Each structure stands twice: as C-alpha cells, then as structure tokens.
Amino acid sequence: MPGAAGEEAGESQSGTAVGAEGLPPAIAQFHAQHDLSTPCLVIELDVVAERFTALRTALGEASVYYAVKANPEPDVIRLLAALGSNFDVASPAEIDLCLRAGVSPHRLSYGNTIKKRADIAHAYGLGVRLFAFDSAAELDKLATLAPGAAVICRLLTHDTKADWPLSRKFGCTPDMAVDLLLEADERGLDACGVSFHVGSQQRDPGQWDAAVALAASVSREVSRRSGDQVRVRVLNLGGGFPAHYLEDVPPIEQYAASIRASVDRHFPPGAAGGRPGLMVEPGRFLVADAGVMRTEVVLVARKSHADDERWVFLDTGVFGGLAETAGEAIRYRLVTSRVGPRGPVVLAGPTCDSADIMYQHHRYELPLALTDGDRLDVLSAGAYTSAYCTDGFNGFSPMPVHCLPPSAQVRSLAVGNQEAGELPHVLRGRRGGPVPGEDVHPGP
C-alpha cells in the first residue's frame, strides 16, 4: 500500500538514489547534521540540474523557460539561469525575483494571460518583451502598454489524462487565435507564436499531438490570410512533463520523441507558414523530485472505539504546502520513521478548517506504531508546495526552504549568466532586426 514505512534501499520510483531511510542520501545526511524545525522543505539542487540536463538532451531544439511559479526559490532561479534556462513568469514579483537573481529581462516570458495594466507597464519598463495573451481585451492592453513587443496567443485545449487539468480558464479557440494574431500584427506587435498547455502532471506523451495539430491549423490560416506576411515562428509546447509520485510515468525521452513526431507530422517541410521554433515551460519536472518535505505527526486519533481507520494529523496540510492534495489529485510517496505492521489512515492538517484533509478516499497505510512526535517525509515535494503556503492562516507561518548547494560537477556545467544570456533564436525579430528587448536593457 502507498505510504509504506521507509523505502527499500536502492532506487526509488523517481530514479533518484535513496538510502536505507527511504530518502535521497544527500537530504538524509543534511537532516542528520541539522536539527530542523518542521515543517520544512529541503531541495537538492543537483537533482534540479540533472532534470534540466535530461530535458535539454531529450528535446535540445526547444528553448527552455522554467515556470517560476513551481518553486520560486532564489537558489533554484540562480542555478537554472547559470545552466542556460530562460524563465516563464506570472507576476511583477516573479519578474523582480528573476532580475535580482541576475537574469536579463530578454530571457523572461510573461506567460500569464491575465495581467493588470500596471503590471504590463512595469514589465515593459524593465525590458520584458515577450507576453502571452488569449483575448481581445488583453491584446488591447498589450498594444497600448507594450508597443512592439512579441506576443504569443494561447490556445484552448482539452487536457485529458492530466492529474492537474488546466483547461477552460486559459486559452481561446483556434479561429479566435487567428483573428487575434492578425490584429496584433496590425497594431504593431510582433505576432510571433501560439502556445498551449496539455495539463500539469500529464502522464500520456501522446496528449501533445492534438494540440500541435491545432497550432498547425492556426499557423496555416494566419499565413494564408496575411499573404505569408505574418508567420507563427514560435510554438510554445507549455509544460506538463511529470514528476514521480505514486504512479509510474514514462521517461522524458518518450515525451520528447512523441512531441518531435507530432511537430514533424503537422509542420512538414514546405508547409504554409513554415516550421516554428519550439519553447517548453517545465516546472514540476525540474524541481518536484528534488524536494523532500519533512513533517511531524501531531496527533493520531480514532473516531470511535470500533474504528480501524486512524486519523493522522500532521503539522502541515492543505494550507501549508500540500494544496495539490485537493481532490487527491497529486498522491505523494510517504516515508515514516516507524516500521512494522501497517493500517489504513486518513491524513489531515493542523488547522481548524474542515477542508484541511489531504487523503481520505485514496487508501494510505502507515505503521500501527506511529505516534505524535514521529516524522513523516513527503517525497517529490519540490514543486507547488512552498509556493502554495498561506502566510498566517490560523497563525501558522510558511515553512522554511533549505537548498543544498550544487556539487562541483554541477557548478562546472553552469555556463554563467553572461554566456547563457542570449535570447533563443526563435524569438529574434521577424524582419531580421535586433532581439526584442536587447537594446532596452543590455547586460547578462
């Protein structure tokens, strides 16, 4: 059953080495050397670098834009910047965070399609020149407040088989996207591309195919209606690449092969509009498996004398970093400090909100000897955990995050901001001009 006490020594499902305690050795050693208060999150930066390298190797033709919202830790941003990543940002705060980490504004994509006017002006004033949109109203704001910027129109897709769907709220239909891109060009913007997202924790590599086909239809129609004066030069494939929770997932190489085949099929040589350059926006894939959240058992209780099911209350919960357990969509692997016979449990958080229950329907089993004061580690917790913590709800503070410094080997891979700071070729000016934003905010 999920949540067995400890993991067997050797390899975990994530492919990250684990020790006898069921934790990655570096994180286990860090805990052994430091008496950390709980809850807390420990990030192994070497694993972040490993995932980034794996993605670049598998899908090297795509420009990588790390989704900062997944984990905005400055050490994570600095490492990925040094490795050559660009960044997908969702707010002025994330823009400022990246700039403080030494990232040039021309390496940022403002991917949120819902932006205040003041936020667009703030980003543009700092040198950001790539924006996403999916509506006429947002296009009007961009044309007014970000003149000449490159814009990408997000398509509405159906993200079946994703553990965390993102459909309905974002994107527009293909026919609307064509109209919006042509209007963007008429209003002086660089209508450079289209984007989509097949859903977070997408476990089916084939789910990109239908979305790529939609993007290709938009590309052809934009080219036809503009007399080939406007071309979709950028295809943003979004994120969705999965982490390793309870369910097995295919390797990243399988996703890359499937995506490459889809692009080849729907953008064949000589196709109207040409073949676009590729972007990807990984978040979860890069950071989830790098993190372990340590919690403490606060209370183990039963609801009746005859109840075999125990309630295990932790010192964190839905409001303290485990928001993605809502609907039990993301099912984490758990490791406890106890061994022995196990029994069914309901896992809940410490707040006075009845919604603070992580797992009630999906069956977890934990050791019968489990008691208050025991530790419980949540594996693959590096994404969408610390970023989701509330600040002060019921008086609980956000959990601290500790990043383990990268190894010498990883540091040797880092190319440094100056060398990594060139804008990907897919976003260069449509008429062969300067890189958007390059002359606005020079530097690394």
Automatic annotation (TrEMBL):
<dbReference type="InterPro" id="IPR029066">
    <property type="entry name" value="PLP-binding_barrel"/>
</dbReference>
<keyword id="KW-0456">Lyase</keyword>
<dbReference type="Pfam" id="PF02784">
    <property type="entry name" value="Orn_Arg_deC_N"/>
</dbReference>
<comment type="pathway">
    <text>Amine and polyamine biosynthesis; putrescine biosynthesis via L-ornithine pathway; putrescine from L-ornithine: step 1/1.</text>
</comment>
<feature type="active site" description="Proton donor">
    <location>
        <position position="352"/>
    </location>
</feature>
<dbReference type="InterPro" id="IPR009006">
    <property type="entry name" value="Ala_racemase/Decarboxylase_C"/>
</dbReference>
<dbReference type="InterPro" id="IPR000183">
    <property type="entry name" value="Orn/DAP/Arg_de-COase"/>
</dbReference>
<dbReference type="GO" id="GO:0004586">
    <property type="term" value="F:ornithine decarboxylase activity"/>
</dbReference>
<dbReference type="InterPro" id="IPR022644">
    <property type="entry name" value="De-COase2_N"/>
</dbReference>
<feature type="region of interest" description="Disordered">
    <location>
        <begin position="422"/>
        <end position="444"/>
    </location>
</feature>
<feature type="modified residue" description="N6-(pyridoxal phosphate)lysine">
    <location>
        <position position="69"/>
    </location>
</feature>
<protein>
    <recommendedName>
        <fullName>ornithine decarboxylase</fullName>
        <ecNumber>4.1.1.17</ecNumber>
    </recommendedName>
</protein>
<dbReference type="InterPro" id="IPR022653">
    <property type="entry name" value="De-COase2_pyr-phos_BS"/>
</dbReference>
<keyword id="KW-0663">Pyridoxal phosphate</keyword>
<feature type="domain" description="Orn/DAP/Arg decarboxylase 2 N-terminal">
    <location>
        <begin position="47"/>
        <end position="288"/>
    </location>
</feature>
<dbReference type="InterPro" id="IPR022657">
    <property type="entry name" value="De-COase2_CS"/>
</dbReference>
<comment type="similarity">
    <text>Belongs to the Orn/Lys/Arg decarboxylase class-II family.</text>
</comment>
<dbReference type="GO" id="GO:0033387">
    <property type="term" value="P:putrescine biosynthetic process from arginine, via ornithine"/>
</dbReference>
<dbReference type="InterPro" id="IPR002433">
    <property type="entry name" value="Orn_de-COase"/>
</dbReference>
<dbReference type="GO" id="GO:0005737">
    <property type="term" value="C:cytoplasm"/>
</dbReference>
<keyword id="KW-0210">Decarboxylase</keyword>
